[in-house]
Amino acid sequence: MLRRSLTILLLIALAACATQPPAPSPAQTTQGLPPVNDELVTGHIAVIEPEALFELSAEQQQTFFEYFNDPVNQQTAEHERVANYLSIIMDRFVYEEKTLTAEQTLLEMSGNCLSLANLTTAYARLAGVPIRYHFLENNPVFIFADDLLIRSDHIRSVLSGNWSGEESEAFQIRRDIRVDYFPTDGLQYVDDIPEALQYSMYYSNRAVELVAQQNYASAFAHAQKALAISNANASAYNTLGVLHRRMGDLAGAEAIYLHAAKQFPENPTFLRNLSLLLQQQERSEELAAVQKRISEIESRNPWQWLVAGRTEHQHGDFEQAINSYQKALEIAPHMHQVELYLAMAYVQSAQPKLAEKHLQSAIDLSNNQNTRMRYQRKLMALKKAP
């Protein structure tokens, strides 16, 4: 539930997100922007400017300054005051898988980790406190939505304190404060995220969310905005490829995947999506070469096991489907949909107790009320079955 830097991964006819490098090498930022077919979208699509991400209403600012400037709090360091204020208001927060501006986050008292980073940035700016961002990775969350597999990694904000000790001293100390929904010490710190890339993530996240809503024109505009801010945003490249394919421009999708594969040579997502295009067009020789490249850089990804399990399931090979689903869960233990598939496979292989166990896991992992209710009805029906 912690995570939220989004990118689309493998689509059933398209793709999903892979790890987005937080600090790309120089070679990855000199390739330029991908070739985009602007004729796919007509008319002007409004997209907010980056500075608006961190704007708060006059009332929200006043409430913060009343706390920050209260004489009672003046003995507390400025970055600690910001963190303390966040801790007070976050008691009413609800984590949700949606990307919001700072003002929206505060109004709705909800959002994902990027929403919290936007709100933290807004307060840090008001207080004049330096802020930076960490990219974390360990057991990334995968979300299955229709024919999209979305991978969700995690970022957190860090409020910087002042250095203590004399400048002439050999050692100085600075007590920074990490701001997050939950403790993240178990997650692997990968790198600091450049400011431009952190801003860009808002637009690429929104693009993914808009693709899932089939609002392609707005998704297109947000993905382009993300790349205009930082061309190191792998998610935005992938989303543009997904959009070109969904909007009927297969040649444009192919050109974007090829461009992105050069930009991010260790990221297999673009090659996976390219292989789907080549397979559809029966370009077997090129497909073999791309699949060979994928195998050389393949990272841990549940998609292949999920697709294999569903195919085996449909063919009635339930034991093999169970094996494939379990392998997918080893990689992505937070996917409640796979728990559901496992439960269905266990039902059909006459193992009702194991089916109940995995249905309960699906309920526990889902953070959508309607989905939980649907799973609970299935579990009740299963328990009543003779």
Account of the protein in words:
- The strands form three sheets. Strands 1, 4, 5, 8 and 9 form a five-stranded antiparallel sheet that branches.
- A hairpin with a 2-residue loop joins strand 4 and strand 5 (148-159).
- This protein has 386 residues and is of the alpha+beta class.
- It is 52% helix and 12% strand.
- Helix 14 runs antiparallel to helix 15.
In whole angstroms, the N-to-C terminal distance is 36 Å
Q: Share of helix among residues?
A: 40-55%
Shape: globular
Largest sheet: 5 strands, antiparallel
Number of β-strand runs: 9
Q: Helix-strand pattern, N to C?
A: EHHEHEHEEEEEEHHHHHHHHHHH
Q: By helix and strand content, what is the structural category?
A: alpha+beta
Distinct helical segment count = 15
Binned strand content: 5-15%
Q: What is the arithmetic mean of pLDDT?
A: 80
- The gyration radius over C-alpha positions equals 23 Å
Low-confidence stretches: 1-30, 138-142, 167-172, 184-190
